[in-house]
Design the sequence.
């Protein structure tokens, strides 16, 4: 599971990250709303844990922009704002849950797992990516309505790339999300899987979907 923490109190941010990593979660950290949006636009997460009162852009503005852009990632507001009005306002803007500081870490972790399960249960719609139709729930892939057989990791890799269409993903981002490995130890792993995946899904000689960005990583390109 991959979680993004957006919290301007650095000590609390680091403590939360350390605790989540003990649960074998992959954790990204940032400390203001603007940086949070940058992370959200360049990677995908199972859950976002977000403070409300932050510099540059508050949590309400971040989640509102996310929802306006169609990003449905579950968001847990973690905040000292504890009035009923505050909670209603946050939920109406598109947050999925609300936990008031101070909090118990066991409750935070339980809520994160619950939001992740809810997000997976809701992920039943197909992703349309060029000629491909990808369904996460059934783990099926069709190209021009013809089924393609993939291994489990090939599907995970394709789903991650296609979920971030037209966004350049670094090798480290791909390893973090699909394998949870450190890049230095597995520098050739992605290249091998990309090569095999292309043979199965990228069969149009005139337009390649999975493109290499030299020195950076890969992009699933559906726009010219």
Sequence:
């Amino acid at each position: 599971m991959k979680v993004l923490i957006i919290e301007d109190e650095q000590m609390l941010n680091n403590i939360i990250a350390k605790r989540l990593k003990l649960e074998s979660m992959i954790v990204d950290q940032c400390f203001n709303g603007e940086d949070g949006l940058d992370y959200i636009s360049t990677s995908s997460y199972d859950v976002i844990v977000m403070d409300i009162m932050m510099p540059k852009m508050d949590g309400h503005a971040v989640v509102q922009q996310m929802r306006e852009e169609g990003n449905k990632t579950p968001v847990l507001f973690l905040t000292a704002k504890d009035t009923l009005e505050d909670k209603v306002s946050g939920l109406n803007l598109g947050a999925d849950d609300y936990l008031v500081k101070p909090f118990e870490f066991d409750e935070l972790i339980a809520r994160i797992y619950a939001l992740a399960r809810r997000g997976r249960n809701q992920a039943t719609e197909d992703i349309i990516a060029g000629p491909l139709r990808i369904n996460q729930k059934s783990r099926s892939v069709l190209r021009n309505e013809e089924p393609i057989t993939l291994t489990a990791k090939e599907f995970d890799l394709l789903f991650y790339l296609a979920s971030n269409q037209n966004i350049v993903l670094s090798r480290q981002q791909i390893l973090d999300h699909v394998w949870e490995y450190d890049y230095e130890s597995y520098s050739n792993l992605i290249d091998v899987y990309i090569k095999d995946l292309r043979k199965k899904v990228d069969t149009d000689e005139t337009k390649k979907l999975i493109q290499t960005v030299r020195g950076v990583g890969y992009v699933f390109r559906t726009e010219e």
About this structure: Residues 153 and 178 are 8 Å apart (CA to CA). The longest helix spans residues 105-122. The chain has two domains: 2-122, 127-220. The radius of gyration is 19 Å.
